[in-house]
Amino acid sequence: MESKQVNPPDPNYSCAERILGVYPQRQDGLFFQRIRILGGRISWVQWRKVIEICGRYSQGSAIHITTRQDIELHNIAGADIKVVQDELASAGLITKGAGGDGIRNITVCTGCNPELADIFDIAKFVNDYVAALSLNLPRKFKISFSGCIQNCAKPWINDIGFVLQQDGFFTVIGGGSLGPRPAAGILLYKDIAPKDILPLCLAALELFEKEGDRENRNRARLRHLREKIGNEKFKTEIAVRFARIKSSQKWPDVSLKTNSHNIKLLHKLQLPNGNINIKDAEILSDVAEEQKAEIRINLEQGIELYGLKNFPLPDSLAKLKNLPVIICCPGNSSCSKGLTNTWALADEIRKYLSGIDTRKLRINISGCPNGCGQSSAANIGLIGMRRIREGRSDECYRIVTGGHNGTDDCLAKGVDVIFSEDTATLVGDLLSSPTQ
Predict the structure, then answer these.
(1) Domain that holds residue 340
(2) Which of 170, 231, 258, 388 fits a 20 to 30 Å CA distance from 11?
């Protein structure tokens, strides 16, 4: 099913709107508003405010969760954007930096290893500091924090990623990104102390701001600078700036917060296509308030509930607990660059996988070669394209496999290009292959 498109959105849409998380949809006069949820931590009060705004301004569409722990509200009329932003701000919900050429939402793994420290406070410290800076970056800049050696926050596909070690120090990965020509990052440091994280972030940002490409947006990410000057010079440039910034003042001695072993993961809900309808979102809010549970958005378009004591879920939420992890961007349902109907394909694959144990498998679908669904790093990745068949343009997908989801430097490699109607069958064949 093709999405209706009256007129293409203005290609010169204001950078100021983008930095506030507002993007034009392919439907004429409609926009989506992205909301930064730092580390995916959102209170039930804020969650309820999102529901309220979505119900009033999103024309019946669902709440959408992204791979960077953001929330998106779709189908908003242009005249309503300002009031939506004002209402979000009244609940402490941030839109600045949710898009555009700036520091995007800082991602944090949700707490998979209770034996290690809680790193959310460090992420918040960095976020609060850099949010006050006046930066003029060439393009977006992504920071992640993993609180475990499983690297759940995907450091290898971020501009800079920090991984907590057993000894309380951090491994640092830098210079990775995806897009049409993806590349994993490289190891920058081992054994970085918590208090040195902010100066190191500032060093990377300074290098990017001063030396990033401002002429060619397709070569404007930090990793493109790394590729241009070479890995060793890249590390040296960061190291020189890091040493200078670190010695320029006395930085706060940031301490790691000990995890509460009483608070544990109670329920993990996988949202089909990253969407949750208003009714189920309201039920989730009521349950979280009643049970005093924490709502955390993970990095795989899911929602996790943490608390002290387990409790049963209502049926409409319980059915979301055992779904396969199929991550996908909105595709041509709303995105002006979307070439394929990603949500329809994800629904088809989800049905195809019914009854199959896919707990360790990640299938990522992107509606165009920009790869917003992180397909290039997936176990099985599908990247939307179009090809001429019998005189007409038809949807197809480039299939890639073997990626480790950004947890190391292993990206997916190409397998084939096939038309959309054959994709679910091929995914099934790949799952039955001895190499999977």
Answers:
(1) 325-432
(2) 388
